[in-house]
Amino acid sequence: MRSALLMISTLCLALQLVAPAAVLAHPHGDEPILFGIAPQQEPEKVRAMWAPFFRYLEKEVGHPFAFETASSIEEFQKRVLEGRYDIWWGNPLTYVQVSKRLGYQAIARDTTRIAGLLVVLKEDGPKSPSELRSKKVAYSAPDAIGGTLLVQALIAKAGVAPDQVETIYTGSHDAVYKAVLEGKAAAGGGVPRSFNALPAEQREKLVVLAKTEEVAPQPFAVHPRLYRGMVTQIQHALVKLNWTPEGRDILSSIQYKEIVVSNDVDYDIHRDVATRLKIPF
Known about the structure:
Elements: H1 2-23, E1 33-37, H2 43-61, E2 65-68, H3 73-81, E3 87-89, H4 92-101, E4 105-110, E5 114-121, E6 136-139, H5 145-157, E7 166-169, H6 173-181, E8 187-190, H7 192-196, H8 200-203, E9 206-215, E10 219-222, H9 228-240, H10 245-253, E11 259-261, H11 268-276
Parallel strand pairs: 1-2, 1-3, 6-7, 6-8
Antiparallel strand pairs: 3-10, 4-10, 4-11, 5-8, 5-9
Helix pairs in contact: 2-10
C-alpha cells in the first residue's frame, strides 16, 4: 500500500513539474509574447491595420501577445538587433543580420515578393531616374531592402551614383511619400504595400516612375527563446488564416495575399544582395 501511494505521489509531482512546460511560451512564464511589427506607415496606422490579426492570434494560440512598433524604421531595426522581440515582422535584410547574430528563424511569409518603387509627383515630377542627378531623394531608412537599397541600385543602374543625389531619411514610407507630395524631395523610395495603403487622394497625385527587381518578402521570424511547441502553434495559426473567410479578411487588412511556411533558405537571395552592396551581416 505504501509503495502504491509513493508511486502515485511521485507521478503527481512529475506531472506538476512537466505540465507547466507544456503550456509556457518562453522562459518568462505566462507573460505576453512580444511581437514587433515594422512601422512602414505611421505607428497608429500600423496598430489599426494589425489589430484584427492580433485578436485572431491570441484566440487561436491561447496565449497573450503584446503588439509593438516604433516611431521609425531605424528605431525598430535597432530593437530587433538587440533581440527585444520574441517574434517580429519586417525588413528581410535585418533578418539576414539577426539570423546569424542572434539565431532568429523565419517561420512564415507572404507569397507576394517585394520590390522597391521609385515614386515621383504625377505633375511636374522627373520623367526618368537619370533626371535625379543633384536632386533630393527620400528614403525611410538606410538599410530598408525594398524602399531604399533596391531603389538606390535602380537609380545607380540609370547612371546616377549614390553620391550624385542628396539623400534624406524620413523614418517611414508614409513620410517619404509626404516629402514628395510637399516638394521636399524630387523622388522617394517605397514598396507596393505602403504605396497602396495611401489615401486615394494622395496616391492619385503620385506616380511610380520605376519598379525594381523582386525579392523574397518580409518574414515572420522567431527568437530561439520561444519554445518549439509554441512556435509550431503560431506557425499553424498563421497558415490557417488562408482557410476561412475571417482569415482572408484579416490577411486583406494587412495587405497579404497568402501566408506560407518559410525557412532560412528563402532569404539567401538577400544575403546575395547584401554581399553585392557590401553590407555586413
